Amino acid sequence: MLTIAALILAAAGVMGFQLYKQAKQVQEHENNAIAMLSKLSSGDAETLANAGDTLPQIAHETQQAQDIAHGGLWNAAAKMPFVGTDISTVQGMTTAINGIVQDSVPQFVHVLKTLSGAQIANGDDGVNLQPIIDAAEPLKQANASFQEQVRDFDALPTPSIGMIRSAYDKGEAHLNDLADRVNALLNTFQVLPALLGNGQQRTYAVMAMTPSEMRSSGGLIGSVGELTTSNGTVHIGDFRSNGDYLPFGIGDHSADMKRVFTDEGPLHMSFDIRDLAVFPNTADSAVAMQSVWNRTPWGRNTPLDGVIMVDPVFLQQLIAINGNVTLPDGTVLTGDNTAEFLMNTVYQKYPESETDALFGVVASQAMKSMFSHMDMGKLYKTGEMLGAMAKGRHFTMYAFDEHIEQGIQSAGFTGQTPNSETDPSVGIYLTEQNPSKMGWYIKREAKIQRVNCSDGDLYHVEFMIHNTMTEDEAKNLPMYITGNNSNNTGKAMEKILFYAPQGGSISNLMQLGGKVDAVKETTIDGVNAYETYVQVNPGQMATFTFDVRVSPKASAPLTIDQTPMGWVDDGITYLDPKCDTK
């Protein structure tokens, strides 16, 4: 019996050593594949369209990894206690990645290769819509295949062995990033024909907003431009400052919005042009904008088809794609400094009376370049950018035509309070109550951790508001930035609305730090929400903690939909779950 036991241990040792050697081979093949895939996906459209030489190499690596991981030794190990689940995960990883490379990516590359040979530009300031229309369905099929494979990867059991967990996490991060980019491109392809007037002329109000003075959907509206499209041709009219709109009254709004933002204060919103981003839903901002537009001499005879809301971060991304903007005084705005200039520098260097006009100048030039001299490379970059910016609410739009708006909503381009049970989100919307330009100094961070994984998963959320302005800055910066009330200089004074996920709930909402009003439940236009007000002095921080239960129908992790900040990073960190998520 001792001899038999020794033989079994020896056999297990040999098996373990062989499995380890093969695991290192699988790791090498997968690392090579993901490195090449990442390099390919981070390239421009031309690189992707001409991926014929690279794809076979990637496919060879992923096929080798799959073949090794599904050999007899691995199949046997997958049935063993303790390590079997991790072995199965590795097998699933190789299958998913190989499927992506063998099936989904070639479809995507074929679409781009076809587009690269098409005539995209329609003159200097227009887009030939037909190639985009033709590419939308094949791209949709490629995206569906790709997203399914990525979901299969995400659904694999989380490994416990360190080496496998590291490889899994790395692969998951790369694949989900690529999935987001592909999805963003598809969304843009589906929306562009309607936006650019396929079959008829359309007029949109382009509302330039600044999160330096936060409103729920973005920030104070500094200027409004006119975008006219017809069969792909684009014309950008001059941007008028908000002062041009003030004589024409306030925007339409509900009784609940008046109660929350005007009656309750402490800053009493007027709902004139400056406050039309105070609504969490883009649709409400659009209706309010239309009501003001119809009273103006330039708008009353020009029916408005919709609105486009943009902020300095969006303009910065446009400039990064299309080239620098030079202001009349020689200041050069780039893909790196535009957001800070428009949200902070401009208020330090220029008279107050000139700031809105400068915002309009930048917005006009950036928007005019958006569709000029279009080619496949620019279309590819613009498509990715629009999707990413819409996700962070730096760019949103709404169309009054229900059919068109349905497509815009499906693409995720219309800002909305949480409305999906399958893709749950918490809505957190801030409106500055200190008339100031403090938004540049208000940094927000959030931590999300899943703490229960039964039906209707439970998450714990920490949401932090940090006033990074120093006491010296509060004393020395212009009052236009720090606030025109000497009692509130440098203070962040935020009205905050919390919305639970659709089909879910918020509980145990508590606050630490800062001067705060008691959190109260309220109903806003038929939707339950929580409302509070917090004051955060220079250098201080306020933290809100709460639990979120999502719908049993949820098929994606909880996210946060929030008022945009002055940068791309949303400040959200996902902590390791406290329960088995698979």
According to DSSP, the number of beta strands is 19
Strand residues, percent:
15-25%
Which parts are unreliable, with pLDDT below 50 for 5 consecutive residues or more?
Answer: 1-11
Which secondary-structure class do the elements indicate?
alpha+beta
How far is the N terminus from the C terminus? 41 Å
The whole-angstrom Rg is 26 Å
Helix content range: 40-55%
Largest pleated sheet? 6 strands, mixed
- Give the integer mean of the pLDDT values: 88
By DSSP (H or I, 4+ residues per run), the number of helices equals 17
Which outline best applies?
Answer: globular
Number of domains: 3
Protein name: Chemotaxis protein
Pfam family, one: DUF4012
Organism: Bifidobacterium pseudolongum PV8-2
Give an overview of the whole structure:
With 582 residues, the protein is an alpha+beta fold. It folds into 3 domains: 1-196, no CATH class; 202-411, no CATH class; 425-575, Mu homology domain, subdomain B (Immunoglobulin-like), CATH 2.60.40. Helices cover 45% and strands 22% of the residues. It contains 17 helices and 19 strands. Strands 1, 2, 3, 4, 5 and 8 form a 6-stranded mixed sheet that branches. Strands 9, 12, 14, 15, 16 and 18 form a 6-stranded mixed sheet that branches. Strand 1 (201-215) and strand 2 (218-230) form a beta hairpin. It is globular and about 80 Å long. Mean pLDDT is 88; it is low at 1-11.
In terms of topology, how is this protein built?
Blueprint: H1 2-41, H2 45-49, H3 54-69, H4 72-77, H5 84-116, H6 129-154, H7 162-195, E1 201-215, E2 218-230, E3 233-236, E4 240-241, H8 242-245, H9 255-263, H10 282-293, E5 306-310, H11 312-322, E6 325-326, E7 332-333, H12 338-349, H13 352-370, H14 376-391, E8 395-399, H15 402-410, E9 425-432, E10 442-452, E11 458-467, H16 471-476, H17 479-482, E12 492-499, E13 505-512, E14 515-516, E15 520-524, E16 527-536, E17 541-549, E18 559-562, E19 572-574
Parallel strand pairs: 1-5, 9-18, 10-19
Antiparallel strand pairs: 1-2, 2-3, 2-4, 5-8, 6-7, 9-12, 10-11, 11-17, 12-16, 13-17, 14-16, 15-16
Helix pairs in contact: 1-3, 1-7, 3-5, 5-6, 6-7, 7-14, 7-15, 11-12, 11-13, 11-14
